[in-house]
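thought: fold this chain, then report.
action: predict
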Amino acid sequence: MLFSTSLNHKKTAQKYCLNVFGAFALLSSFSPVLAPVLANENTVTYKIKLGEQVSGNASLINFNGSDTAEEFVIIKLTGKQFKIYHTTHVVNRSWFTNRWFDHPVTAMKVCVSDGFDKKDCNLINSDTATIPDKLSIHDLSIDFKYTESDRVFTKNILVSKDAKPEK
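observation:
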């Protein structure tokens, strides 16, 4: 009887460990989703959707090539310093799979924004910059450059005063 009880506890412990490690492996594949949880408690994270593209010739009969790609900009703000990166979330509706692709930012032009006007621009060859004194992230226009599939892209982002950080 002692042997079967300890064997049952061992199986329960193994099942629990597999469930914990399986959950961690599953969650770690969603890096942008986990980022706010793993970030410094003083870090504020904005995730801003840039757009969505559907590719392929999907129909009720033929599901081949029915991918959806969503583009996001992630801004992590700690005090007056912020870091920015571009990420793409690709969902394949045929196979019910999804993947995140991070594209590090290689350069930025950070300007003070006044409506459509830009002034006091700084060129930065990095993915990290400092917000000027007496300003917030909402006062800036940020042009950034990243590489995806051997092609260089540039985008512009302004963080709206109505934008809510991730929780």
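thought: worth noting. The helical segments are 2-28, 31-38.
final: tokens above.
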